[in-house]
Specification:
About 40% of the residues lie in helices and about 15% in strands. The protein contains 16 helices and 16 strands.
Length: about 475
């Protein structure tokens, strides 16, 4: 989808349609919108430009008349030419023809829209898996950053596994919930997603099968399909991943590893019980099935800490453990870690150096200071207090507006509520209608393609007034769609 982060100025002396026309001409002329690039639908364009459809139509008609755009009923509008090809006998490179040849597949259209619209301040983000700016610890961060000049003597590349001082602090931190890991068995990554990329690209053969919960965060990532990975979903119950299915799939399929989010699961919010964790470790030890434990939500508990990690329950190096500061502190730091056997960490570190030559030195020093200063634990206590309030507000709003159309479980931590509608609706239509009403949601079918009754709601990002207002408006939309179906 073409990126548009501009709108015409109603106070400008130039008519709105002409401002839009000039903007598009410039995008086409500079090559930012290559030949064959498809424009968003007219309704979407009108919303982005904040004009009515007739104004937009005048601008598009002008560009079509100039030969820069083409439009066909049922096929949309696309860039047909540019100023270079109008003036020169040899047309420029058609970059669009390259777009379908790359290794990585594009995101689902809905996810692309979500990724763009999450930067639009005019929408209420009811599903964003990120701490609200209201919770950002500005004073503490200022204190941390002011201390760094005394620690940092140069900002060169760090060693392949990451800053030793940070790995030492993470080693101490991990021991607080039962993981005994030396700094040499820890590697710094730019978040858990990079960890997954590195694991898949350097440890797994092509056409591997990954077992994971269904629904799951990974089902929304085209990364694994691009790497020819087969994702095989395991049902969830209130205690976590169904155990019986693991042995069955290991026996009948080319299963290479198990991926799980055991604490405050994304998107369902379920936390795996201690007994289920022990059983899964036992099964995977018997089947010799490695585990990736994605534990980025662990510290976001409300009343009591979750059970100890799977990694703390085994001593054979079966589990690769992923942690991160993205959910608990700041996604912008881009700091996460992998814990595993030293030969595996050595291999992953080598591949990471081939791809980006290491995570940001500045971010690593800042993360180390957060952990060693004790401020991280202070911050976590405040985060939990704020999320408790937000969960209560969200659940009260759900009780008031959704009790007759949906069911849900009250989460014990994390960001998410997995809303289950009593009656199926078109997820695509609901997503579009919500956008038209200034609401950004995550339909369940991006986490499970067969889901047409689920929404992932988040109480972590929107302000409390926006959350209450947004959930009321969302319930009204859903009730309307149910009546129409």
């Amino acid at each position: 989808m073409l990126s548009i982060d501009w709108a015409p100025n109603p106070k400008d002396s130039l008519p709105l349609y002409q401002q839009i026309s000039e903007y598009m001409k410039n995008k086409i002329a500079t090559g930012e919108w290559p030949i064959n690039s498809k424009l968003p639908p007219q309704r979407t364009l009108a919303r982005i430009f904040q004009v009515n459809r007739s104004t937009l139509a005048i601008a598009l008609d002008e560009l079509i008349a100039d030969g820069l755009l083409e439009s066909k009923l049922g096929s949309g509008t696309w860039v047909a030419n540019n100023t270079w090809s109008l003036l020169a006998s040899t047309p420029p490179n058609n970059w669009t023809s390259y777009l379908d040849r790359g290794i990585h597949l594009p995101n689902l259209h809905t996810i692309q829209e979500i990724n763009h619209l999450e930067f639009n301040p005019k929408v209420i983000r009811l599903s964003t898996g990120e701490l609200s700016p209201e919770i950002f610890p500005k004073t503490m961060m200022d204190s941390i950053l002011r201390k760094l000049p005394d620690r940092i003597h140069a900002l060169g590349y760090e060693e392949p596994r990451g800053l030793l001082f940070l790995r030492e602090q993470i080693s101490i931190y991990l021991s607080s919930f039962g993981i005994n890991a030396s700094p040499s068995s820890i590697m710094i990554v730019s978040g858990a997603l990079q960890a997954l990329q590195l694991i898949c690209s350097s440890l797994l053969p092509k056409e591997s099968t990954i077992l994971l919960e269904r629904p799951s965060y990974l089902f929304s990532l085209k990364l694994f399909q691009s790497m020819n990975m087969d994702l095989c979903g395991i049902p969830l119950d209130e205690d976590g991943m169904n155990m019986e299915s693991i042995s069955f799939h290991k026996k009948h399929k080319n299963v290479n590893l198990l991926y799980t989010i055991p604490c405050f699961h994304n998107p369902t919010g379920i936390t795996m019980t201690k007994e289920r964790r022990k059983n899964i470790i036992s099964i995977c030890q018997k089947e010799q099935l490695p585990i990736i434990e994605d534990d980025v939500y662990r510290e976001l508990w409300f009343d009591t800490p979750p059970p100890i990690p799977l990694k703390a329950l085994e001593k054979e190096g079966l589990v690769l453990y992923l942690g991160s500061l993205s959910k608990s502190l700041s996604p912008g730091l881009r700091i996460g870690w992998i814990v595993g056997p030293e030969p595996v960490i050595e291999r992953l570190a080598d591949i990471k150096m081939q791809t980006d030559y290491g995570s940001s030195s500045l971010s690593q020093w800042a993360a180390a200071e957060w952990l060693t200063s004790g401020l991280y634990q202070t911050h976590l206590e405040e985060v939990r207090a704020q999320l408790r309030i937000r969960r209560k507000v969200a659940c009260n709003a759900l009780e008031a507006h959704f009790s007759d159309i949906a069911t849900w479980q009250i989460p014990k931590g994390g960001f998410y509520i997995w809303l289950i509608l009593n009656q199926a609706v078109s997820m695509q239509k609901l997503f579009k209608e919500a956008l038209n009403n200034g609401l950004l949601i995550h339909p369940g079918n991006i986490y499970d393609t067969l889901s047409n009754r689920h929404l992932r709601l988040s109480y972590s990002y929107a302000s409390l007034p926006e959350m209450e207002n947004g959930l009321f408006r969302l319930s009204t939309l859903i009730k309307t769609l149910i009546r129409q179906s």
